Structure formats: C-alpha cells, structure tokens
Write a sequence for this structure.
C-alpha cells in the first residue's frame, strides 16, 4: 500500500505501476482508484498512477470537510507529482477527474502533457447534477451487494446491455459491507462540501487552457451530465480533439468499451 503525506498532513493513497509515459488516473466525485479497473488491462505500456482523493477510498478523511474542493484536490495532485519526482503527467480524468485536469491546465499548464475527459466538459447538465445529489453522502437503502447490483441500473441512468456480472462488480466497487449493512466508500461530509460550494465559474477558459495539448473526449450516449450539445461545442473549439461516443452508456462509461479504448489508445499515440 503506497501513501504520501500532503502539506496539511493528510495521508493519501495512490498506486504506481509500470514504466514510460506517466498516466495519472483521476476518479469521479465519489469514486476511487477502482474507477479504472476495467481499462487497466487494455492500456498500452505506461507508468500508470492512480489516486484516491482525500476523503475517498483508502485515503484519509479530512476533519475539515470544506477542503473537499477542486483547488485543494489540484494541490494534492501536484504534491503527489512532486512526491514521485514527476514534472508533468498525462491525465485520464473521469467526471470530476476531468474537471481537475482542466483546472491543472489552467493553473499549472507545464505540469500537464494532455488529457482525456471521461463524460465531462465545461458545462454540466443540471439534470445530471440533480441526479448525483439524490445519493451523494447517503448509505444505500439496500443491505446486500445483490440488491445493490440490482438497484444500480435504476440509479445510474442511460445504461443499456450491461450484464449482471458487471453490475455486481460495480456494487463491490462503490460499497463496502459492514455489520450494519452496506456503506459508501467516501466521507459523507462530501455532500456538505458540494452543497456549500460557491457557484461554479465559467469553465470554458479552463477547457481552452488545454490548447496545444493532446486531448480526447469520451461521452456516454445516454449521459445526463455531458449533453450532446456541449460535446459539439467542445469539438468546435478543438477540431483536433479525439472524440468517442459510447452507445448504451450513461454517466460514466466504464472505459473498456471498444469506442472508449480506441479513443484512449489514439490519444496515447499522440503523447509518445
């Protein structure tokens, strides 16, 4: 188990395997390094680094929930890079991880080689945000992994043709079994941070900060967070951006779909 200590004293969990292009995987809001379990076996050789944000997964919870913000997470990312003696990384960012990639491009462009944005962009659909708030910070109402797996397709909209085995794997990814039933894998006070957060700034300048860097966008065709219109706007601003829309997937694609894999591999070829 690998950890490092942040400048404000928290112990954060990370994984670091392989050699070559440093590819940093940043998960979604409530997610962990397990966000990338499906794509890992399919990636070209690289130095694959994964991080659990503070308050998530195997990282330490912050006594001050007001630190569960993008600026603090970006600071944590750069401190991990310093810990690993990496001047720059490529980022594969799922949802919030993509926002962090854009923020890194805007605040420390020399530290970012390029980015894949997994089902996220500079405009977030209110319907998707509202959907996240229905479960954020709450323990699941069901008390077994089997029932959680059966419920996930109804909670996560836009998914089609996902086998039961994958939903069971997802249940084990997002929940833990306790003597009192299932629990979430993150600090429930993350909800307080989101509710107390200030209004999101205009993120288009953050997206534009990716100019000149290899960029790919993956969108679930049934996504309720990244609209098709926003994806088109992103393509208009970055005609060279690799784009893949994954059928039968909502927010977020698993990343081992053929369309997602092809886009990520093509993006990685631009980085080597």
């Amino acid at each position: 188990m690998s950890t490092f200590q942040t400048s404000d004293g928290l112990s954060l969990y990370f994984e670091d395997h392989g050699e070559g292009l440093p590819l940093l995987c940043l998960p979604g809001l409530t997610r962990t390094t397990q966000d990338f379990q499906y794509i890992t076996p399919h990636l070209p050789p690289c130095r694959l680094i994964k991080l659990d944000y503070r308050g998530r997964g195997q990282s330490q919870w912050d006594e001050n929930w007001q630190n569960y913000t993008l600026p603090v997470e970006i600071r944590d990312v750069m401190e991990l890079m310093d810990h690993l003696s990496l001047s720059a990384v490529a980022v594969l960012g799922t949802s919030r991880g993509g926002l962090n990639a854009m923020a890194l491009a805007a605040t420390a462009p020399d530290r970012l080689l390029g980015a894949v944005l997994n089902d996220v962009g500079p405009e977030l659909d209110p319907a998707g945000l509202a959907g996240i708030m229905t479960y954020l910070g709450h323990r699941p109402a069901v008390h077994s992994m089997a029932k959680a797996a059966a419920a996930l397709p109804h909670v996560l909209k836009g998914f089609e043709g996902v086998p039961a085995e994958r939903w069971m794997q997802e249940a084990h990814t997002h929940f833990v079994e306790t003597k009192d039933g299932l629990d979430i894998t993150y600090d429930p006070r993350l909800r307080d941070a989101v509710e107390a957060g200030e209004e999101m700034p205009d993120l288009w300048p953050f997206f534009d900060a990716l100019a000149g860097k290899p960029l790919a966008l993956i969108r679930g065709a049934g996504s309720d967070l990244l609209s098709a219109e926003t994806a088109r706007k992103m393509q208009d601003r970055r005609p060279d951006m690799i784009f893949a829309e994954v059928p039968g997937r909502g927010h977020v694609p698993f990343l081992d779909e053929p369309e997602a894999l092809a886009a990520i591999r093509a993006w990685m070829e631009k980085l080597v």
